[in-house]
Amino acid sequence: MKPHDHIGWVFDGAPQFDALAVPFLAEGAARGEQLMYVSADPEPGLAARLGDGLAPGTLQVASIVEVYGASGIVDAAAQRATFAAALTQAKADGYTGIRVAADNTPLVADEERLAAWLRWEILADRFMSENPVTGLCAFDREKVEVDRLRHLATLHPLSSAGSPAPQYRLFADAGNLRVEGLIDSFTVGQLRLALDVLPPGTGVLIDLAAAAFTSRRPFAGLQRLAEAGVPVTVQGPPDALDELTAAGSAPNGHLTLEQTAT
Predict the structure, then answer these.
(1) Alpha-carbon distance 211 to 229, whole Å?
(2) What is the pLDDT along the chain (262 residues), one digit of tens a residue?
(3) pTM of this prediction?
(4) SS3 for 143-186, per residue?
(5) How far is it, in rounded angstroms, from Cα 212 to Cα 240?
(6) Domains (range + CATH), the chain
(7) Distance from the Cα of residue 3 to its chain's centroid
(8) 156 closest CA partner among 14, 2, 8
(9) Which residue, 121, 122, 64, 58, is CA-closest to 90?
(10) Strands 168-173 and 176-183
(11) Distance of alpha carbon 251 from alpha carbon 244, whole angstroms
(12) Measured between alpha carbons, how far is 109 from 143 in angstroms, rounded to an integer?
């Protein structure tokens, strides 16, 4: 893992999360990063054990309540400000960036918390893409049902091998929201929700080398997004773009079809 990487990791039980966090944090220490370990209730002495051999202050161990608040319903904008302040302080202290290993299982425990967390994941991914931040978002398979884990995976550009495979992924890419995987009408609806959280002017980027439309209906949804002023770019070989045009996705002021090499 390196700066800007953002991975969703599914684990089995608290001991497995700690076993995962140790090498992840050690890798960050070697890069000169400020390290953060977050879980629901860190055990006493954990900081000393995980931070053995590190310079004082390199590792910060905190509870979910301390980082995300007592309600467990994350305010995305406020949380971004929290991590932006942590990054600013870390760089002032001479670190190259920050690296966060977090067991976020309690923050997706019900529908209200999950909805708030999904908004935060969208904003967090954008923040990591623009700053020297590395994030490991971990969820306990023993406590989170599989469909919820699959939904969470859609908002992480990287996933552990044991994570449920999502149909699609939405993640930040150079100021755009990139879409990969199978794109249907539901995907376009999730895309709209994600854009509501992101800064105005955020575009949508679809590379047909890593994405495919399930039918003509998503084309119309993308065109409506473009007509509403969202810059939408679809990249692909000439024959694939010709199929889109034939299906009614003609370019307009905000919908661009870019040819790539065959």
Answers:
(1) 22
(2) 999 999 999 999 888 998 899 999 999 999 999 999 999 988 877 777 777 778 888 999 999 999 999 999 999 999 999 999 999 999 999 999 999 999 999 999 999 999 999 999 999 999 999 999 999 999 999 999 999 999 999 999 999 998 999 999 999 998 899 999 999 999 999 999 999 999 999 999 999 999 999 988 888 888 889 989 999 999 999 888 888 777 665 666 788 888 887 6
(3) 0.91
(4) CCCHHHHHHHHCCCCEECCCCCCCCEEEEEECCEEEEEEEECHH
(5) 10
(6) 6-165 (3.40.50.300), 170-259 (3.30.750.24)
(7) 13
(8) 8
(9) 58
(10) antiparallel
(11) 10
(12) 8
**What are the structure tokens assigned to 64, written together?**
């979910």
Q: Find all residues with CB under 8 Å of 156, minimum gap 6, and list them.
A: 6, 7, 8, 121, 125, 137, 169, 171
As given in the structure block, the two tokens for residue 4 are: 């800007």
Contacts of residue 133, defined as CB under 8 A and 6 or more positions apart, other chains included, come to 3, 4, 83, 87, 97, 98, 99, 100, 127
User: What CA–CA distances, in Å, run from 256 to 14, 194, 212, 251?
Assistant: 47, 20, 17, 5
Structure tokens at 173: 């890419």
Residue whose structure tokens are 């370019």: 251
